[in-house]
UniProtKB/TrEMBL annotation:
Organism whose genome encodes this protein: Coptotermes formosanus (Formosan subterranean termite)
One GO term (biological process): tRNA modification
Pfam families reported for this sequence: IPPT (PF01715), zf-met (PF12874)
A single Gene Ontology CC term: mitochondrion
Gene3D superfamilies to which the protein is assigned, alphabetical: 1.10.20.140, Classic Zinc Finger, P-loop containing nucleotide triphosphate hydrolases
The protein, known as: C2H2-type domain-containing protein
Keyword Cell membrane among record annotations: no
Domain C2H2-type: 443-465
GO molecular function, one term: zinc ion binding
Length: 475
């Protein structure tokens, strides 16, 4: 791994990224750093970009927002499609503007792939015709709260999938249309029409990807619809295969097997760490607090409004888009469908308690996924350029100032002065013990597909696979 912490530091504005599992105090630290150093906060949370449902998405309170400028909160409608490309295209100009003006960007995550899209050049870049959109977004400063008055400045631009579909429909020839559409039961589906593609079976989409970009298809599970659609759309937008563009990124100066180089080499990571048992209990208590704050009412009100609009327009229910992906909707799905009378019955009580248990469980699982990602992306020795990662012990709130706030201020201040933090060392990186070649493998015994060596080896060692193997041997 190329160690960015070893390079000669110069006096310029760093990019500070605050990571950690949900419930460990990332927002609190972000606000305190922004206030101390005159910085501004960028939320890197895929659910907090949506307007409303503040409890469900665990947004900072209006009072907290007034303590420091916040960006990328409440910027799109709850059911609007918003991709990681849309996020990157809005966030990068804000970061660039802050650095140019000498202000400290503080990225608070959040959603793993949102953070990755900012730190590294891993997504397909826009062509020159997109620069006008980028310039419009560059001046956007969303939901900045100062002097007790909220000021909203909307980014005046189309979302990525809407813009690309319009442009391609205007510019493509008939030959292009034939090669960049998908035939489904005799009808042509535009590869840029994401809404239409969602109704196409994954098997059809995967076959199309195998035809136009077999290398990319080999590294994706046939059921991974989101990534399959993305690769097809890259081909439709650029007339180049997604796999070829990724190979180009990886071979660029500073690139690696995981993608392109660092976007902001002068950056550092502050990782809020917490003992697992303490974090689990904290997450349980947070769910209880969310319920006391009105979580159920917020879910019920939005669910009712959504269904009223859906029935009025005769559209089918779709709980896989927009803010419906937030933790909470799926867990309370059965309860939300009940009438008010049934919600007050024994059946309603049963569904309610089942929803609470499920919400606590998925919240813990989500926190563990966040931690695995941090370890794999930042603390495994690879060829990738990785910013220094500083661990901060947030286990005991009583020692917040001594173990979190004090060291964090010291690190940020050193970076602002162009110096390596004195007496504070970044976390060590470890060798990656298993090579994970991302290619699909099919288990003939279990009739299942797996992507990558790690998934494949885990499956071969699993009890289920061994049981199936014994059954086949007996037969």
């Amino acid at each position: 791994m190329a160690d960015c912490g070893e390079r000669e530091m110069s006096s310029r504005v760093p990019v500070i990224v605050i990571l950690g599992a949900t419930g460990c105090g990332k927002s609190k630290l972000g606000i305190e750093i922004a206030r101390r150093f005159g910085g501004e906060i960028l939320s890197a949370d895929s659910m907090q970009v949506y307007k409303g449902l503040d409890i469900v998405t665990n947004k900072v309170t209006p009072e907290e927002k007034c303590l420091a400028p916040h960006h990328l909160l409440d910027i799109v409608e709850p059911l609007q499609r918003f991709t990681v490309l849309d996020f990157r295209n809005r966030a990068v100009p804000i970061i660039d503007r802050l650095i140019q003006n000498g202000k400290l960007p503080v990225i608070v995550g959040g959603t793993n792939y949102y953070i990755e899209s900012l730190l590294w050049k891993v997504l397909v870049e826009e062509d020159e015709s997109s620069l006008g959109i980028r310039k419009q977004v560059k001046s956007a400063s969303n939901e900045v709260c100062l002097d007790d008055k909220r000021q909203r400045v909307q980014a005046d631009s189309e979302l990525v999938y809407e813009r690309d579909r319009r442009r391609m429909q205007e510019a493509r020839s008939q030959e292009d249309l034939e090669s960049k559409n998908l035939s489904v039961q005799g009808d042509l589906v535009d590869l840029l029409d994401e809404a239409a593609l969602e109704h196409v079976p994954s098997s059809h989409l995967y076959e199309k990807l195998q035809a136009v970009d077999p290398d990319m298809a080999q590294g994706l599970h046939p059921n991974n619809k989101r990534k399959i659609i993305r690769s097809l759309q890259v081909y439709a937008q650029t007339s180049r295969t997604h796999s070829a563009i990724l190979r180009e990124q990886r071979s660029a100066d500073g690139g690696s097997e995981l993608g392109g180089p660092l976007r902001y080499p002068y950056s550092c990571i502050l990782w809020l760490q917490c003992e697992q048992e303490v974090l689990d209990e904290r997450l349980h208590l947070r769910v209880d607090a969310m319920l006391e704050q009105g979580l159920l009412k917020e879910l019920l009100d939005f669910h009712r409004l959504y269904n009223e609009e859906r029935l009025a327009t005769s559209t089918e229910a779709d709980y896989t888009k927009g803010i419906f992906q937030a933790i909470g909707f799926k867990e309370f799905h059965q309860y939300l469908l009940l009438s008010e009378e049934d919600r007050n019955s024994e059946k309603g009580s049963k569904f309610f308690h089942a929803g609470v248990d499920a919400l606590k469980l998925v919240t813990k699982r989500y926190a563990r996924r966040q931690l695995r990602w941090i370890n794999n992306r930042f603390l495994r020795k690879t060829s990738r350029q990785v910013p220094p990662v500083y661990g901060l012990d947030a286990t005991d709130p009583y020692f917040w100032n001594e173990r979190v706030l004090g060291p964090a201020f010291k690190i940020v201040e050193s970076y602002l002065e162009g110096q390596k933090p004195d007496g504070v060392e970044p976390l060590p990186v470890t060798e990656q013990s298993v090579k994970n070649e991302l290619k699909t493998k099919h288990c003939d015994i279990c009739d299942r597909m797996f992507v990558g060596d790690i998934q494949w080896n885990d499956h071969l060692r699993s009890k289920k696979h061994r049981r199936m193997l014994k059954r086949k041997q007996v037969l």
